[in-house]
Amino acid sequence: MTSDATITPVNALALLRNGDAVLVDVREPDEYRAAHIPWALSMPLGQLDALLGETGIPEGRTLIFQCLKGGRGGQACLVADRAGHGAGRDIRNLLGGIEGWTASGLPVVRAEGATGPAIPIMRQVQIVVGLLVLAATLAGLSGIGWGFYLAALFGFMLAFAGFTGWCGMAMLLARAPWNR
Fold first, then answer.
1. What is the DSSP string of 66-120?
2. Dist. CA 93–CA 134, nearest whole Å
């Protein structure tokens, strides 16, 4: 398996309809709930190795990973291959992710009331924290010394969220009216 082993949405659909493939959505649960491909199993990238070991996916089936655009799907292919889940099977990354699937006119299951893809919570966190770091850094550069300390605090909290998987900002944003 190489990191460039992709499959087009149309070819993936044919394999899924024939029962010759298993589609694994490696996006975060909130992304999956907002919109997903009908055949997809939800297995977030951070938990992929443990979840693949528990599923008992038959060896003869092609394993197709899918994310938003293809980046995390490619990472998932490498994780599965390195962990030994690729033995006896073809591992593929869905070309273009769910965006490529949708652009091909293929079916997508959307959350009730959802009209289009919402911005995932973690991207919202990245936007908010990025703007806070920018504002604090600009404050520091304009002579307000505590701005640099505030930027460092935001950086620390972002790293803490990455290491632990606990993100207070994500929890707050999940309760925001536009995310309900």
1. E-SSSHHHHHHHHHHHHTTTTTTS-EEEETTHHHHHHHTT---EE-TT--SPPPP
2. 35
Single pTM value for the model: 0.67
DSSP state of 7: E
Domain map of the chain by residue range? 6-110, 121-179
Residues serving a catalytic function are 67
Report d(CA 153, CA 147) in Å as an integer: 10
Cβ(23)–Cβ(66) below 8 Å: yes
pLDDT, tens digit, 9 for 90 and up, residues 16-64: 999 899 999 999 888 888 889 998 999 888 887 776 666 667 777 899 9
* 6-110: CATH architecture: 3-Layer(aba) Sandwich (3.40)
